[in-house]
Write a sequence for this structure.
């Protein structure tokens, strides 16, 4: 067999299996960015959050017992994607892998650099609309309880809601008004990409975490395209079905969380 033929066979045998999402049960968390991508594509996947004892699998990775092979480096934190022999982590890295495979990035033949543009948008959303909200409730240390950093959290939230949140939403409204976004309602080239799913989940989490601020920003009308994108993604048949179904977990004490003292208008 030629080396090309062997590579193709290896590719088929390793990757012709369902995706495995390894993530903490009980919260949507960062796992949700991956779930929405798999759900929109109708991909077959197994999710530790839906499997009895799934948390043991997560712990095996966190403790370094897995992966135990010569090709995959140890994992720092979930979400983790296992696909055949491949084990990878870091949310945007997993999306970078899944996007082209699941048709959630324009094809290389039509637009060879699309992946880097879609990835740029996803990274920006994750920076400002996911990681920064996380730091609102954990501004000092992830290892400390929220209750041990409440004072700092209050200051962080005031800054975030008044300046960072409108800055990031304004940026995405500019993207949606740009020529590169195409005819709408999506971020890039008039087609749904995984960056739209990331942005949808960020907006959904922010609506839960900062309901007054988000309602005010919506009412002001300065981000109308952004909220149209939110509605359009939420109405996509597979996403709508998923959101209304049993696999969609409720927000609780994860990445996006509600505290009355965070619910300011800005
Ligand atoms: N940059 C990573 C962050 C991963 C992360 O912080 N995972 C959380 C759960 S959402 C975790 O378990 N962190 C453990 C830790 O940071 O020690 C990503 O985007 O995937």
């Amino acid at each position: 067999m030629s080396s090309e033929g062997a590579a193709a066979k290896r590719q088929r045998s390793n990757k012709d299996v369902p995706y495995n999402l390894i993530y903490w049960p009980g919260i949507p968390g960062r796992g949700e960015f991956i779930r929405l991508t798999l759900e929109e594509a109708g991909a077959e996947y197994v999710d530790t959050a839906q499997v009895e004892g799934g948390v043991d699998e997560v712990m095996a990775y966190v403790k370094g017992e897995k992966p135990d092979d010569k090709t995959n480096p140890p994992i720092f934190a979930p979400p983790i994607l296992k696909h055949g022999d491949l084990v990878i982590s870091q949310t945007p890295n997993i999306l970078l892998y899944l996007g082209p495979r699941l048709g959630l990035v324009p094809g290389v033949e039509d637009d060879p650099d699309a992946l880097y543009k879609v990835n740029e948008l996803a990274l920006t959303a994750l920076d400002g609309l996911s990681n920064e909200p996380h730091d609102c409730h954990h501004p000092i240390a992830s290892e400390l309880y929220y209750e041990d950093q409440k004072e700092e959290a209050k200051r962080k939230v005031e800054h975030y809601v008044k300046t960072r949140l409108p800055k990031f939403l304004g940026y995405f409204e500019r993207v949606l008004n740009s020529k590169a976004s195409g005819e709408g309602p999506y971020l890039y080239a008039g087609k749904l990409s995984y960056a739209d799913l990331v942005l949808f989940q960020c907006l959904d989490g922010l609506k839960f975490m900062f309901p007054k601020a988000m309602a005010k920003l919506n009412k002001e009308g300065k981000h109308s395209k952004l909220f149209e994108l939110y509605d359009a993604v939420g109405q996509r048949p597979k996403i709508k079905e998923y959101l209304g179904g049993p696999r969609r977990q409720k927000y609780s004490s994860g990445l996006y969380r509600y505290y009355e003292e965070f619910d300011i208008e800005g």
Observations:
- Strands lie at 19-22, 45-47, 80-83, 86-89.
- Residues 29-30, 77-79, 90-91, 142, 255 surround glutathione (CB under 6 Å).
